[in-house]
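Before drawing any conclusions, I looked closely at one protein's amino acid sequence and its backbone structure tokens, quoted below without any editing.
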Amino acid sequence: MGHSFRNIIYLIFAFVLVFYGLPRLPLLVDQTEAVLFSAVWLGFALLIIGANLYQIIGEREERNVASPFTLPQRERTKKRTQYDYE
């Protein structure tokens, strides 16, 4: 629960940072360095947003999948590749 809350806070912070910085970025100017900086800055911001979304969605998926240690013994033996010779 703590990691999910932290990722949501980071995601909100990244969105605020993008919405604050986007109007101030020099996207349509003649200086190639300024446009290159803007593109790299937006790329990193989108990477951070994507990584946090991936973590949030991944934690929800992990909760839905049962751990192999919680399966009953009968279910675990069905997935074996070798037979027991008793």
Notes: The mean pLDDT is 81. The two ends are 45 Å apart (CA to CA). DSSP finds three helices and no strands in the chain. Residues 6 and 52 are 9 Å apart (CA to CA).
